[in-house]
Design brief:
With 156 residues, the protein is of the alpha/beta class. 26% of the residues lie in helices and 21% in strands. It is built from four helices and six strands; from the N terminus they run H-E-H-E-E-H-E-H-E-E. The chain starts with 13 loop residues before the first helix and ends with a strand. This is Dihydrofolate reductase family protein.
Length: 156
């Protein structure tokens, strides 16, 4: 499953796109569905079926491959998993909690995008105009489940 840990929308991500392409469908929550629809002024996920876990029907995508899972979403997801329909790529905090609370997640992917205040996705640069970037020098899983990442300046 994929989700933004700080609650902020995540921009385009080639790793998420690759995972979604390899899966049988994409699973999202209602808030994520609305955010994606409004940010794109339409539905961009057309190659795969999208399942939206929701308490009600908020269908803005009547002609797209979007199915709304209402009622017992965990039971529907257990059925999908038991039928072996393939990998489901999940995105969104609500969806992540649903999967974890019901023992349905097999893998969690965490992508850290270091951003400095006032910058964009690639904000680890030295100053505003010198063009030097930072790269990962090392990354290590620590005993308590935390990850220590060391960045270094790219030297010309």
């Amino acid at each position: 499953m994929y989700q933004s840990l700080d609650g902020c929308p995540v921009g385009a991500d080639k790793h998420f796109d690759t995972a979604a392409e390899a899966s049988c469908c994409v699973l999202i929550d209602e808030e994520t569905y609305l955010r994606i629809y409004l940010n794109h002024l339409g539905w961009p996920l057309t190659a795969k079926e999208t399942l939206v876990v929701t308490g009600g029907c908020i269908d803005l995508t009547e002609k797209e491959r979007v199915r709304f899972v209402t009622g017992d979403a965990a039971a529907e997801l257990r059925r999908i998993k038991a039928d072996g329909e393939g990998t489901v790529t999940a995105y969104g905090a609500g969806t992540g909690a649903l999967l974890l609370d019901n023992g349905l997640a097999d893998e969690i992917v965490v992508t850290t995008v270091p951003v400095l205040v006032g910058g964009g996705e690639k904000a680890l640069e030295c100053g505003l105009n010198d063009g030097k970037a930072w790269v990962v020098r090392s990354s290590k899983a620590l005993e308590d489940g935390k990850i220590r990442t060391v960045y270094g300046k790219v030297c010309p």
